[in-house]
């Protein structure tokens, strides 16, 4: 019975079947020839473990694969370096020959990349080492390391760390844009655990960046880290499991029908506002394809004992619902919670069209309105019924305890995230149009309840059409732009959510 439910939840994202197509225009073909000659010239003297690949090969497919194919970049070549020296080589070649390149770690970036055309994927997947130093309580990872790769090694060594909510993005990719997640209340952002990084700059030179080495860059890369160089390793502070109930968390998952949504959302607004420091809730509005209705799905994680969890969650446990509960070790939280939906949520190469917002106010009225608007979309667009609205509700005690001036990450008062995820088949222009219309409408409706005076969204969740001030913060931009001018004057790192060379 539990199994059937898990399967059904997960199927929310299954109804999408797509294939990647990159149209080859004449200019693209011409550029391909140039890059192929340039990159395969023996004068390059690539290291033996560097791979150069082109369309039509598995190496190329792997080196350019992305989580979402919505507004994806187009590539004509990929370099998968085995050494930092070869990363420098790609950067220097790009500068000399003026071709676009894009560092790729986990491939989960959500920015609009459609202005990146016929470029080179600088695929960092070979930098996949994980070194845990138990005595120093640190972990050093390369950009090819995904969250799923660190759970068991860290846990088995007696440690844990704050992470994002899914297993598939790269640890470094998440960290350099902030890195929000369920442990924000206790430990802060993923970026707050950073101690130092190695970075190949736009000048091709390898630098150690930390509080004592390039401190200006150290400030910038913790929030806007994709703009200043290629990070080849990062060292994080890790926490002993013994500080946190032996690493055991309590999970409470359940589904509520639409009729109960407002009662439930009111309970959250009244009883979990502010969110208790050990608690995190992920609430999903989606479509129940068995009953053909919209519904509210919940996943609550409490870092502590079951007894304390039950006390804290009592207002929710008083609801008339079928609860699924479990005690989960830290390394199993992401794979088991939410009905095991992580595995399916992480399937790459699907069209995923997202509109997201930061939130700092908890408003049942705002959440309910978005549930009703989403329901309207789901009823009208049967081919978009894998679409969802996701509320991530996290405490922010440890996040807010770090002074804002410490990092470039601008939203230390944030207490949750509003995410719209539209999924439909490529070529389904009817549903695409519906998603575009409802997507913007839902976002502007909810922005009024977000607690911010403008629709803000941190960089990892930004779509690409937001005002730059609403992504990086107006107060951070002058310094970020000065540092961009200083460290990347040729604007080599110009895609995604680029920091301008001057601001204002
Ligand atoms: C399923 C899913 C779950 C997510 N969950 C969370 C979450 O819980 N918390 C959160 O904060 N974010 C989350 N995100 C957002 C995620 O953090 C960002 O999309 C992040 O940019 C992904 O990094 P990546 O390396 O996987 O992606 P990529 O597409 O490889 O990289 C994203 C951007 O960062 C640049 N970049 C990546 N690595 C490096 C590097 N080593 N040096 C320099 N530049 C680099 C790339 O050039 C690109 O511009 C999630 C995204 C998805 C799709
Ligand atoms: C569909 O709704 C029923 C009744 O609320 C619930 O028991 C079931 O788990 C739901 N299915 C999914 C896929 O969430
Ligand atoms: C490509 O990626 C797949 C899936 O991760 C893997 O099984 C395969 O070995 C990779 N191929 C190459 C050539 O690296
Ligand atoms: C690639 O080879 C060089 C030289 O042998 C080595 O130093 C480096 O660690 C290798 N890179 C990877 C990612 O294994
Ligand atoms: C993505 O960017 C391109 C080029 O900048 C633009 O034409 C397009 O409208 C953008 N797409 C979305 C969905 O914002
Ligand atoms: C609890 O919910 C079930 C099914 O949703 C319903 O049949 C039952 O009457 C409800 N009980 C109470 C006390 O509301
Ligand atoms: C589901 O609802 C749609 C209208 O929203 C209707 O066309 C369809 O027949 C329903 N399917 C089932 C199985 O009830
Ligand atoms: C966490 O912060 C909230 C305010 O946002 C505060 O009310 C609460 O007491 C703090 N919790 C702890 C454990 O410090």
UniProtKB/TrEMBL annotation:
Q: Does the keyword 4Fe-4S apply?
A: no
Recall the GO molecular function terms of this protein's record. Answer: FAD binding; oxidoreductase activity
Query: Which cofactors go with this protein?
Result: FAD
Domain FAD-binding PCMH-type residue range list: 71-241
Is the keyword Disulfide bond in the record? no
At the top level of its lineage, which domain of life is listed? Eukaryota
Keywords in alphabetical order: FAD, Flavoprotein, Oxidoreductase, Signal
| Transmembrane region(s) | none
Endpoints of the signal sequence: 1-24
* PROSITE patterns hit by this protein: FAD_PCMH
The family database entries (InterPro entries) matched by this protein are listed as: BBE, FAD-bd_PCMH, FAD-bd_PCMH-like_sf, FAD-bd_PCMH_sub2, FAD-linked_Oxase-like_C, FAD-linked_Oxidoreductase, Oxid_FAD_bind_N
Question: Per its UniProt record, what PANTHER family does this chain match?
Answer: BINDING OXIDOREDUCTASE, PUTATIVE (AFU_ORTHOLOGUE AFUA_1G17690)-RELATED (PTHR42973), FAD-BINDING PCMH-TYPE DOMAIN-CONTAINING PROTEIN (PTHR42973:SF39)
Similarity comment: Belongs to the oxygen-dependent FAD-linked oxidoreductase family.
Q: What is this protein called?
A: FAD-binding PCMH-type domain-containing protein
């Amino acid at each position: 019975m539990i199994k059937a439910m898990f399967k059904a939840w997960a199927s929310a994202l299954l109804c999408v079947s797509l294939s990647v197509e990159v149209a080859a225009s004449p200019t693209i073909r011409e550029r391909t020839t140039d890059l192929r000659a340039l990159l395969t010239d023996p004068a390059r003297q690539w290291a033996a473990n560097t791979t150069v690949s082109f369309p039509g090969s598995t190496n190329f497919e792997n080196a350019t694969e992305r989580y979402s194919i919505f507004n994806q970049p187009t590539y004509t070549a990929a370099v998968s370096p085995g050494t930092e020296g070869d990363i420098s080589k790609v950067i220097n070649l790009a500068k000399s020959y003026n071709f676009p390149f894009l560092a790729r770690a986990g491939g989960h970036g959500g920015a609009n990349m459609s202005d990146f055309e016929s470029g080179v994927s600088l695929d960092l997947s070979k930098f996949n080492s994980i070194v845990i130093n138990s005595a120093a309580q640190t972990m050093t990872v390369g950009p090819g390391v995904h969250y799923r790769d660190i759970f068991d090694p860290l846990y088995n060594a007696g440690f844990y760390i704050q992470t994002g909510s899914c297993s598939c993005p790269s640890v470094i990719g998440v960290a350099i844009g902030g890195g929000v997640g369920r442990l924000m209340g206790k430990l802060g952002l993923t970026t707050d655990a950073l101690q130092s990084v190695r970075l190949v700059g736009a000048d091709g030179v390898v630098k150690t960046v930390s509080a004592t080495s390039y401190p200006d860059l150290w400030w910038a890369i913790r929030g806007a880290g994709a703009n200043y160089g290629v990070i080849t390793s990062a060292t994080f502070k890790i926490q002993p499991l013994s500080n946190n109930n032996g690493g055991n968390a309590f999970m409470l998952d359940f589904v509520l029908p639409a009729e109960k949504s407002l009662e439930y959302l009111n309970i959250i607004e009244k009883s979990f506002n502010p969110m208790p420091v050990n608690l995190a809730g992920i609430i999903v509005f989606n479509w129940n394809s068995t009953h053909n209705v919209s519904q509210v799905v919940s996943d609550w994680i409490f870092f502590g004992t079951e007894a304390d969890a039950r006390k804290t969650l009592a207002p929710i446990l008083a609801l008339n619902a079928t609860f699924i509960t479990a005690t989960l070790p830290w390394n199993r939280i992401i794979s088991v919670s939410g009905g095991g939906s992580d595995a399916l949520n992480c399937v790459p190469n699907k069209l995923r069209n997202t509109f997201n917002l930061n939130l700092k106010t908890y408003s049942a009225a705002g959440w309910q309105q978005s549930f009703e608007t989403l329901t309207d979309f789901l009823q009208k667009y049967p081919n978009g019924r894998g679409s969802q609205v996701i509320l991530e509700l996290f405490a922010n005690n440890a996040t807010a305890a770090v002074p804002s001036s410490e990092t470039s990450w601008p939203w230390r008062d944030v207490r949750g995230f509003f995410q719209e995820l539209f999924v439909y088949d490529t070529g389904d222009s009817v549903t695409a149009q519906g998603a575009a219309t409802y997507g913007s409408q839902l976002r502007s409706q909810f922005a009024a309840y977000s607690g911010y005076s403008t629709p803000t969204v941190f960089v990892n969740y930004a779509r690409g059409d937001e005002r730059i001030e609403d992504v990086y913060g107006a107060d951070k931009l002058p310094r970020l732009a000065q540092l961009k001018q200083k460290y990347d004057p040729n604007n080599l790192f110009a895609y995604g959510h680029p920091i301008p060379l001057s601001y204002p």
